[in-house]
Amino acid sequence: MSLKDTYTKEILPKLQKDLAIDNIMEVPKLEKVVLNMGIGTYIRTGNKDYSVLQEHLALISGQAPVVKTAKKAISNFKLRAGMPVGLTVTLRGENMYNFLDKLVNIVLPRVRDFRWISGKSFDNEGNYNFGIKEHTIFPEVPQDDVVKNHGIQITVKTTAKSPEAGKALLTEMGFPFSK
Question: Model pTM?
Protein backbone atom coordinates (compact mmCIF):
# COMPACT_ATOMS: atom_id res chain seq x y z
CA MET A 1 0.00 0.00 0.00
CA SER A 2 1.39 3.43 -0.96
CA LEU A 3 1.95 6.24 1.53
CA LYS A 4 -0.90 8.24 0.01
CA ASP A 5 -3.36 5.37 0.53
CA THR A 6 -2.10 4.88 4.08
CA TYR A 7 -2.58 8.59 4.71
CA THR A 8 -6.18 8.68 3.48
CA LYS A 9 -7.29 5.41 5.09
CA GLU A 10 -5.38 5.30 8.39
CA ILE A 11 -3.48 8.48 9.23
CA LEU A 12 -6.24 11.00 8.41
CA PRO A 13 -8.87 9.55 10.80
CA LYS A 14 -6.27 8.98 13.53
CA LEU A 15 -4.99 12.57 13.30
CA GLN A 16 -8.54 13.91 13.37
CA LYS A 17 -9.17 12.02 16.60
CA ASP A 18 -5.77 12.80 18.20
CA LEU A 19 -5.85 16.52 17.41
CA ALA A 20 -9.56 16.82 18.30
CA ILE A 21 -10.51 18.36 14.95
CA ASP A 22 -14.21 18.38 14.05
CA ASN A 23 -13.96 19.03 10.31
CA ILE A 24 -11.91 16.47 8.36
CA MET A 25 -10.85 19.19 5.91
CA GLU A 26 -8.91 20.94 8.70
CA VAL A 27 -6.70 17.92 9.37
CA PRO A 28 -3.08 18.70 8.38
CA LYS A 29 -1.89 17.32 5.05
CA LEU A 30 1.19 17.59 2.89
CA GLU A 31 1.32 20.36 0.29
CA LYS A 32 4.75 19.91 -1.27
CA VAL A 33 8.32 18.79 -0.74
CA VAL A 34 11.16 21.01 -1.97
CA LEU A 35 14.70 19.70 -2.51
CA ASN A 36 17.54 22.25 -2.74
CA MET A 37 21.19 21.66 -3.58
CA GLY A 38 23.69 24.50 -3.44
CA ILE A 39 26.32 24.37 -6.18
CA GLY A 40 28.18 27.62 -5.47
CA THR A 41 31.27 25.91 -4.04
CA TYR A 42 31.27 23.46 -6.95
CA ILE A 43 31.28 26.35 -9.44
CA ARG A 44 33.92 28.35 -7.49
CA THR A 45 36.43 25.47 -7.56
CA GLY A 46 36.75 25.96 -11.30
CA ASN A 47 34.37 23.25 -12.45
CA LYS A 48 31.81 24.95 -14.69
CA ASP A 49 30.01 21.74 -15.65
CA TYR A 50 27.41 20.94 -13.02
CA SER A 51 25.34 18.65 -15.25
CA VAL A 52 26.38 15.64 -13.13
CA LEU A 53 24.71 17.25 -10.10
CA GLN A 54 21.62 17.97 -12.19
CA GLU A 55 21.48 14.32 -13.23
CA HIS A 56 21.90 13.12 -9.64
CA LEU A 57 19.13 15.41 -8.34
CA ALA A 58 16.89 14.29 -11.23
CA LEU A 59 17.54 10.65 -10.33
CA ILE A 60 16.83 11.30 -6.65
CA SER A 61 13.62 13.27 -7.18
CA GLY A 62 12.25 11.75 -10.36
CA GLN A 63 11.95 15.09 -12.16
CA ALA A 64 14.30 17.64 -13.70
CA PRO A 65 15.74 20.29 -11.36
CA VAL A 66 15.53 24.02 -11.99
CA VAL A 67 18.81 25.95 -11.99
CA LYS A 68 18.69 28.99 -9.71
CA THR A 69 20.97 31.89 -10.58
CA ALA A 70 22.30 34.80 -8.54
CA LYS A 71 20.12 37.90 -8.80
CA LYS A 72 22.94 40.36 -8.11
CA ALA A 73 26.71 40.36 -7.81
CA ILE A 74 28.38 40.08 -4.40
CA SER A 75 32.13 40.62 -4.65
CA ASN A 76 32.96 39.19 -1.21
CA PHE A 77 31.58 35.81 -2.32
CA LYS A 78 33.10 36.07 -5.82
CA LEU A 79 29.58 35.96 -7.17
CA ARG A 80 28.44 37.55 -10.43
CA ALA A 81 24.86 38.24 -11.42
CA GLY A 82 23.50 35.35 -13.45
CA MET A 83 25.91 32.72 -12.10
CA PRO A 84 24.26 29.41 -11.16
CA VAL A 85 24.12 29.02 -7.38
CA GLY A 86 21.71 26.16 -6.77
CA LEU A 87 19.39 23.47 -8.04
CA THR A 88 15.84 23.03 -6.80
CA VAL A 89 13.01 20.55 -7.32
CA THR A 90 9.44 20.91 -6.08
CA LEU A 91 7.53 17.63 -5.65
CA ARG A 92 3.75 17.50 -5.42
CA GLY A 93 1.09 14.81 -5.60
CA GLU A 94 2.11 11.21 -6.21
CA ASN A 95 5.81 12.07 -6.71
CA MET A 96 5.87 13.74 -3.28
CA TYR A 97 4.39 10.71 -1.52
CA ASN A 98 6.71 8.32 -3.37
CA PHE A 99 9.76 10.40 -2.44
CA LEU A 100 8.81 10.62 1.25
CA ASP A 101 8.11 6.89 1.38
CA LYS A 102 11.55 6.18 -0.11
CA LEU A 103 13.20 8.75 2.19
CA VAL A 104 11.71 7.38 5.41
CA ASN A 105 11.90 3.65 4.67
CA ILE A 106 15.04 3.28 2.54
CA VAL A 107 17.33 6.33 2.59
CA LEU A 108 17.39 7.47 6.22
CA PRO A 109 18.09 3.96 7.58
CA ARG A 110 21.12 3.82 5.21
CA VAL A 111 22.80 6.78 6.92
CA ARG A 112 25.88 5.70 8.82
CA ASP A 113 25.49 6.10 12.61
CA PHE A 114 21.93 7.33 12.16
CA ARG A 115 20.68 8.94 15.38
CA TRP A 116 17.18 9.98 14.31
CA ILE A 117 16.26 13.41 12.98
CA SER A 118 15.67 16.46 15.13
CA GLY A 119 12.09 17.31 16.02
CA LYS A 120 13.00 20.96 16.61
CA SER A 121 13.24 22.09 12.97
CA PHE A 122 9.60 23.08 12.59
CA ASP A 123 8.62 26.65 11.82
CA ASN A 124 5.50 28.35 13.27
CA GLU A 125 3.27 27.05 10.45
CA GLY A 126 4.16 23.37 10.95
CA ASN A 127 6.60 23.05 8.02
CA TYR A 128 9.70 20.93 8.52
CA ASN A 129 13.24 21.59 7.26
CA PHE A 130 16.25 19.32 7.48
CA GLY A 131 19.45 18.65 5.62
CA ILE A 132 21.28 15.58 4.41
CA LYS A 133 25.08 15.94 4.29
CA GLU A 134 25.73 13.45 1.49
CA HIS A 135 23.55 12.99 -1.56
CA THR A 136 25.20 9.61 -2.14
CA ILE A 137 22.99 7.89 0.45
CA PHE A 138 20.23 7.71 -2.16
CA PRO A 139 20.42 4.35 -3.95
CA GLU A 140 19.74 5.95 -7.38
CA VAL A 141 23.00 7.92 -7.38
CA PRO A 142 25.77 5.99 -9.18
CA GLN A 143 28.75 5.94 -6.84
CA ASP A 144 31.26 5.97 -9.72
CA ASP A 145 30.14 9.41 -10.98
CA VAL A 146 30.52 11.19 -7.64
CA VAL A 147 33.36 13.72 -7.64
CA LYS A 148 32.39 15.52 -4.44
CA ASN A 149 29.61 14.89 -1.95
CA HIS A 150 26.88 17.52 -1.85
CA GLY A 151 24.26 18.18 0.75
CA ILE A 152 20.55 18.41 0.08
CA GLN A 153 18.15 20.63 1.99
CA ILE A 154 14.66 19.11 2.24
CA THR A 155 11.61 21.19 3.10
CA VAL A 156 8.28 19.48 3.83
CA LYS A 157 5.42 22.01 3.54
CA THR A 158 2.21 21.09 5.37
CA THR A 159 -1.17 22.73 5.94
CA ALA A 160 -0.72 22.44 9.71
CA LYS A 161 -1.40 25.57 11.77
CA SER A 162 1.14 24.78 14.51
CA PRO A 163 4.46 22.96 14.92
CA GLU A 164 2.76 20.35 17.12
CA ALA A 165 0.21 19.49 14.42
CA GLY A 166 2.96 19.30 11.79
CA LYS A 167 5.04 17.01 13.97
CA ALA A 168 2.02 14.79 14.65
CA LEU A 169 1.41 14.47 10.89
CA LEU A 170 5.01 13.60 10.04
CA THR A 171 5.33 11.23 13.00
CA GLU A 172 2.29 9.31 11.79
CA MET A 173 3.84 9.18 8.31
CA GLY A 174 6.89 7.42 9.76
CA PHE A 175 9.47 10.18 10.21
CA PRO A 176 12.00 8.96 12.80
CA PHE A 177 12.09 11.93 15.19
CA SER A 178 14.31 11.81 18.25
CA LYS A 179 12.49 11.43 21.55
Answer: 0.84
